[in-house]
Please model this.
Amino acid sequence: MLRDIVKARIEELVSDLGDWTLEFQDDDTRGHFSANCAFGLAKRKGRSPIEVAREISETIKKSGEDIFSNVEAVHPGFVNIYIHPQFFFREIEKNLMLGSEYGKNTIGTGRKARIEYVSANPTGPIHIGNARGGPYGESIARVFEMSGYETFREYFHNDAGTQIEKLAATVWYWYETIRGGSAEFPEGGYQGTYLEEVARAAHATLGGALSMSDIGTITDFTLEFILKENEDVLRRLGIHFDGFFKESDFLSKGKTESSIAFLKKKGMLKESEGAWWFAPKDEFLEDRESVVVRSNGKPTYFASDIAYHREKFESGYDIVIDVFGSNHHGHVPKLQALARIFGFDPQYFSVLLYQFVRVKKGKEVVKMSKRAGTYVTAKEVLDEVGSDNLVFSLLSSAPVTHLDFDLDLAKEQSMKNPVYYVQYAHVRAENIIEKSGAEEPKSESDVFSEFVFSPHDMNLIRRIAEFPCVVADTARDYEVHRLTRYAFDLARAFHNFYEHERVIGPDGAISVPRLALVFAARNVFRSVFHCIGISAPKKM
Model:
């Protein structure tokens, strides 16, 4: 990619730079790239960063390297770099030759990654908070695949424990009520009308003659019903999984018991007041401890999570990622400790946390769903605004920030709606291509040599050339909101190009270089939309 070429040239010209970064500039009046290479070098030499930045700039200028059109040092010590247009043109040629392959890289070639995401509570429908983790994990998986990783997507179904007993009791109450029996709502039972729907489905499917001795049948039906509905919501969001893992299987197959025995043998558990506690005393947990087996002999949810993560860490994958809601913050150090215990390097294990979502209609906050009782369901939002609007919005902010999702804005068919804005840019590109009647060129090296491109042309070219770096950076740091921001910036560059430059003249004459840019932009729109998980419509 272009950034790697530029960085390699600078390192050939300036020695002892150490670790440094080269970033695309949003505003090309300050260069096409900005380098922080002067700071580390200045620290090692005991000099000011701006002084070292000026020396680096002069060294690059004097080299006569044809890739650099200008280099300047700016306070407090950055080096701003301008690239000759011909090197951007080469990126367009590469794009036209590679098509949908443009932007792919080899960061993960020969490596395997497994990613767990969503893993919704099995006692009800996926809520809008859980839903944020779906596009987050799916987008990481798609970027990984573009980066050469063999990727495994997984979902953990924690279908055991006291919450399942409470779930079954609530459904049984509604089942009894529906068939005209006498029942009392269980203490701590789940509110809302959703489980009444489940009970009606159970009554219709299983009949009305079940007794309390059949509570296991009711439980199995309920769990399967909820899981299938949640899977349907996820499919509508463009999410699929390669593996489903059930907590009940880890318990019934002895995997949880085996993992507890392993930790006991390693001296990682201690007994206190009849209970067993996870207490590794390492740099992750220090003096904190967590119950693994209760004093009544029943394992906690964390016990099965230990067994599940043991399977992850011992399965031969190079990278393991968990995507959880921010309420799992206290769970993170325990999992990091487990990685080391089970022989997995913690630096290749990441727990990515996301904040929850508040749904609004204009200025009014939507507080809860009657169906769920305590929260807004993802299905209700999905039914109202569609997959593209929901996915793009959930990925539009850094996951560590709280997100307000505006239903009214998401439904707007106007340029105020960010999803409409980016997709309409793709539609404009498709319209130009269709009107031109031309086939996609494979290379246009001779076309660019004499053509004088405008600032709007060059801004679009620069944005197209940035895409491989966007994919590579996201594969390294998992900041997938970079993709939505890039899609918006590319769309803005394309809209400006569309409104100011002619591709097809009034007489039908085609500007071949500009048509090449349209094809290149169309290719990138398709690829970045795929990474995000939204559609690339041809008409709107």
Remarks:
- The mean pLDDT is 92.
- The radius of gyration is 28 Å.
